Amino acid sequence: MLFASFSDTDPSKLVLLMATPAYLACIGWEAWTLARARRSNYTKAETLNNVALAASFQVVELFALVVVLGIHARVYEHRLFTVPRTWWTFLILWVLQDGLYYAAHRASHRVRWLWASHVVHHSQEAMNFSTAFRQSLLSPFFGMWPFYLPLTWLGFAPTFVLLAVNVNLVYQFFVHTELVRKLGVLERVLNTPSHHRVHHARNSQYIDKNYAGTLIVWDKLFGTFEEERERPQYGIVHPLRTANPLITIFHEPVAMIRDALRPGRLADRLKHLWAPPGWERATSPKAHDPGPPPRDGLPRGRAPKAV
Fold first, then answer.
1. Distance (Å, whole) CA 128 – CA 40
2. Residue 301 — pLDDT band, cuts 50, 70, 90?
3. Sign (positive/negative) of CA torsion 2, 199, 218, 215?
4. Alpha-carbon distance 206 to 84, whole Å?
5. Taking the model in full, what pTM does it have?
6. How far apart are CA 173 and CA 194, in angstroms?
7. pLDDT for residue 263 is more than 70
8. Does residue 193 carry a pLDDT above 90?
9. Residue 139's closest CA among 241, 258, 201, 59?
10. Which Pfam families match (predicted)?
């Protein structure tokens, strides 16, 4: 997942080992149930695309995490405290990590540099369990790992942090489905399939909502919660219309770099990296000839808004 092991006794290995059969069973159950009901949203092209994306992500992560883990280990050497590994300290860590995940996930939608990799996860125009595997091989470089450094600095051992991260990510697999409707009182506290369907939707009222990992209370606390009412329309605002994994991965980083290289003030050009994905430059008063329209039909300089 996000971290590799610091030791041979890393408990997160057991979490992932136990979760894998559950993943496959849920995908099989969901595909079979939808096929029986004649409303399957699994397609061969997109399923293969998801598999390719997941495989490429795992391969790159093996190398990138050597650096990531080195940074976390170095920070832990300068920790403020040494937090013991107990069930109650894990509960504290789990809540803290979930709050930092909310911050990281929200930033991944509001900072274009981070969105350039996270957009891959949102580009599928369907919602099913295989969507959870849809990750970019650029994620280790554009991803969330710096947001968890305060945990190791406070004194939580890196393998303890790793366990909390992986428990969170395992939980999130199970919210990627349309088969589970609303879950009653659990909807008030937990991120549920209903809440996460909103997050993946491109309906105007659903964009940039429900960033939660495990606890939906963060969205309710910080004003980003939206309840599922209207049927979600999944995907990004300007759909890719392709299942090519290379286009899926690189379309937004290429667009971001192209926008940053366009002539103009350096500050404006760099803003394409850290401004929200929908930000566009003011038109120069000297630009009398805009040239031919871009192929996607958008105004020049406009990037697809985050979903």
1. 10
2. very low
3. negative
4. 41
5. 0.86
6. 13
7. yes
8. yes
9. 59
10. FA_hydroxylase
Rounded Cα–Cα distance for residues 249 and 119 (Å): 8
Q: First-to-last CA distance in the chain?
A: 23
Give the other-Cβ count within 10 Å of 292's Cβ. 6
157-175 confidence digits (pLDDT tens): 988 998 899 899 999 999 9
3 state SS of 78: coil
Q: What burial class does residue 301 get, using C-beta atoms within 10 Å of its C-beta: 0-12 exposed, 13-18 middle, 19+ buried?
A: middle
Give the model's pLDDT for residue 12.
61
Q: Residue 8 pLDDT more than 50?
A: no
How confident is the model over 78-92, as pLDDT tens digits?
999 999 999 999 999
What phi and psi, each to the nearest 5 degrees, are found at residue 6? -95, -15
CA-closest candidate to residue 125, choices 276, 236, 291, 34 = 236
User: CA 110 to CA 92: how far, in whole Å?
Assistant: 27
Q: Which residues contact 43 (CB under 8 A, 6 or more apart)?
A: 126, 243
Q: Which amino acid is at 23?
A: Y
SS3 234: strand
* Distance in angstroms (rounded) separating the CA atoms of residues 184 and 109: 28
| Owner of token pair 């968890």 | 148
**Domain edges within the chain:** 11-174
> Both tokens of residue 180?
């589970």
